[in-house]
């Protein structure tokens, strides 16, 4: 455990750099792809035939916003060891024809909410836009990542003098209250200003920009804080903190009997029902193609699933210092208390006694601290990608996360010691094999 804790500073530095470079799910996936290629992984394309070799690492993306990487240790592998997380976060998406002129003085951008975000933290912060544009080429279309890396706009609050009850009411209307101030209008042609800006940023013609997926993001960089550096704060901790820990664990792992699979899906915040979400065939397609590329048949694929294990990694609620009564009376995770194992009787989380016991055993063997989370019995919680992905690939699955505060804010808070715990747990998961010996019986080797 001492060696794990000694790595916290380095891991946190890398995590904050990754978060700062990943203002959208498209950028997060591109950055993970670069990390994998630097370590010798080969990129595959879904539309091409796969020729895979044992002992090698590969990755494939879908939509530029979901990624699956894997390492095949041997042809006759036992099963798949999977850690699944997601790349998206609640934020504001820019609408088409975005510019709205206000009294010939201001230009606002028309946006809509993506996912269930906290609105208030977005106010009075420097913001910018990032995502992707799709441009015309000589023989079709091509995608370009875009990130306007400067303070570009702001959503100004209404002064307290004009809204005396805001601190008591606290409600915000996204269409009326949350549109960002983009530029002045006086003496300028406002229509197409954003498109021109994007064209300049990407060095393409305005006329060649056919469509775009653009999101606002908070420009405040991540930081370490607390009297002794106990905490870290950043945008997009939910769920890029888990995605980062998973890929670091994969790159440090040594798979021997099972295929190690790092899976990052998109659109979890809006229900996962897209071609790149947990409800899609993406994971199932990749697992089947791995099996087929190794010359294995359908029976071997199904027996491999019986000896597979999935960790659904999505951040968890820590007990809030000002709202302790919002947590369960006895199952109360805290920042820096370790990985959180999440349970729900209504199967909002997939953890049951068997999968919980498997993950507890992995943590106990490595000296990794863990905590337990239940929602208050009178307070419904959100679901995660584990139970949705199981509709496509039925696996023994545990739901876990790292404890955090202010979930779905544009700037969230976590413990500075927790990330390294999940990196080590991921390394252990990817390195071992969970061999099924009948319902509820597994050998961890």
Please give a structural write-up.
The chain has helices at residues 2-6, 8-20, 25-38, 166-169, 174-177, 193-202, 237-252, 282-293, 298-306, 353-366, 385-389, 418-431; strands at residues 42-44, 57-62, 66-71, 80-86, 91-102, 106-114, 127-137, 140-147, 181-184, 209-218, 223-225, 231-234, 259-265, 309-313, 316-317, 339-342, 370-373, 396-401, 403-405, 412-415, 434-436, 442-444. With 445 residues, it is of the alpha/beta class. It has two domains: 2-89 and 235-444, 3-Layer(aba) Sandwich (Aminopeptidase), CATH 3.40.630.10; 91-218, Roll (Aminopeptidase i, Domain 2). It has a nine-stranded mixed sheet, sandwiched between helices. A five-stranded mixed sheet has the order 11-12-20-19-15, covered by helices on one side. Helix 7 crosses helix 12. The chain is globular, with a radius of gyration of 23 Å. It starts with a helix and ends with a strand. The mean pLDDT is 93.
Concise description?
With 445 residues, the protein is of the alpha/beta class.
Write down how many β-strands occur, each being a DSSP E stretch of 2 or more residues: 22
| Full CATH superfamily name of the largest domain | Zn peptidases
Which geometry do the CA atoms define? globular
User: CATH topology of the largest domain, anyone?
Assistant: Aminopeptidase
Question: If strands are numbered along the chain, what order do they take across the biggest sheet?
Answer: 1-2-3-13-4-14-18-16-17
Helical amount: 25-40%
Q: What's the CATH architecture name of the largest domain?
A: 3-Layer(aba) Sandwich
Low-confidence stretches: none
In DSSP terms, counting alpha (H) and pi (I) runs of 4 or more, how many helices?
12
